[in-house]
Specification:
The chain has 356 residues and is of the alpha+beta class. It has eight helices and seven strands. The strands form two sheets. The chain has a four-stranded antiparallel sheet, covered by helices on one side. A three-stranded antiparallel sheet has the order 5-7-6, covered by helices on one side. α1 (2-44) packs antiparallel against α2 (51-78) and α3 runs antiparallel to α4.
Length: 356
């Protein structure tokens, strides 16, 4: 009995020393890997490429976890003679599954880090790129990574992927009929992100439907538009594939188009007024002279001599545009009065013939 106890103590102590050795080596490996990653992180700070910093930062935690998992795998190999074979196989499978999960976690972290960096770099620089589009593609990539990981895990633990995919094909047909509207809205949202007819913050309107307002959110099913009376309008994404959408936020200029009538009594002053108004608009600091600019006598009206002004402002901001337009119209009013003329209003002249 004493000999058996001595042999047991020897075996236990021998395994204990081996496990302690593995733990020490794993901790040392952990420190070495961490030191190497810190050196890589410091060296990438001096490069012009910002994405290598993001990749190193994103994979640091998963790699450090992998070092400890490697240590646990070696520990299980040491004590496999002391535990049940089924338990040993279960622990081995769990550890290998952990490696797959950590690898997927690292890829997802890289995608998220790059997404945030791209959004930060493009903000305010590219009016056609918005965080909604970038986030949509990043979300799609994360879904692909997670689904791939799930399929690999299912295959690893013994499920038949071919049978699952076949079932998915049959189920997909049924789901397609049951959720046709949901799928059409999903692909409608995808087309919005790809074609980018508008972005979050744009003012949009449709001549086909009563839709007008500022885009607040572009989701996978609906797009949220805040109307000008501050009511939220939820438009299914599939709607945008069947209607015309106008995006006034992307206009390059705003137009001033007005017709002005002068009295027939001031016919001799019309040419002088037109010349001065034309010169005034050409020299106006808020009028874009690179665009069409016209001031022309247009029509002999019933009660007035009509001329029109046609020009474009440099600003596209709604409030600033109206301030510029107000300034132009008031100055034209002064020009007309300066030439001792006045604006016409509907009048009728009666000719009465007195009988003798």
């Amino acid at each position: 009995m004493q000999n058996i106890m001595k042999n047991f103590d020897f075996i236990f102590n021998d395994i204990t020393y081996q496990i302690l050795t593995v733990i020490v080596i794993t901790a040392f490996l952990h420190l070495i890997v961490k030191f190497v990653l810190v050196l890589l992180s410091r060296s990438t700070r001096f490069t012009n490429n910002q994405y290598d910093d993001l990749v190193i930062s994103a994979i640091t935690k998963p790699i450090l976890w992998v070092t400890w998992i490697i240590g646990v795998i070696f520990t299980i190999d040491i004590i496999d003679i002391k535990i049940d074979e089924d338990v040993y196989l279960l622990l081995s499978d769990l550890l290998q599954i952990s490696v797959i999960v950590l690898t997927s976690w690292a890829v997802v972290r890289v995608i998220t880090a790059i997404e945030l960096e791209v959004v930060s770099n493009l903000k305010g620089k590219n009016r056609f790129a918005d965080d909604g589009t970038i986030s949509a593609f990043a979300k799609l990539l994360r879904i692909i990574v997670i689904m791939s990981m799930a399929l690999i895990l299912l295959q690893y633990i013994g499920f038949s992927i071919s049978g699952l995919l076949a079932f998915g094909g049959i189920g997909g047909i049924a789901i397609g009929f049951a959720a046709q509207d949901l799928l059409s809205n999903f692909f409608g949202g995808l087309m919005i992100h790809l074609d980018r007819p508008f972005a979050v913050g744009d003012w949009v309107r449709s001549p086909d439907q009563n839709i007008e307002g500022t885009v607040e959110n572009i989701g996978w099913r609906v797009t949220t538009i805040r109307t000008f009376d501050k009511r939220p309008l939820y438009v299914p994404n599939s709607t945008f594939s069947t209607i015309s959408v106008e995006n006034p936020s992307r206009m390059s200029n705003r137009r001033i188009k007005e017709t002005i009538g002068i009295r027939y009594d001031d016919a001799r002053q019309v040419k002088l007024i037109l010349d001065e108004v034309r010169n005034y608009l050409i020299n106006h600091p808020d009028i874009d002279t690179k665009q069409t600019l016209m001031v022309n006598f247009n029509e002999f009206g019933e009660s007035s001599l009509d001329f029109f002004i046609y020009c474009f402002t440099k600003t596209t901001v709604w409030t600033e545009y109206h301030m510029v337009k107000e300034s132009v119209l008031l100055d034209i009013l002064d020009i007309v009065h300066k030439h001792s003329a006045d604006f016409a209003y509907p009048t009728q002249r009666l000719s009465v013939e007195l009988m003798k």
